[in-house]
Amino acid sequence: MHEDCIDERALSKLRWRCRRGLLENDLIIERFFQRHSHALTVRHANALGELMDLSDNDLLDLHLARKVLADINGQLDRTDVHEVLNMLRQPL
Question: What predicted TM-score, i.e. pTM, was given to this entire model?
Answer without folding.
Answer: 0.91
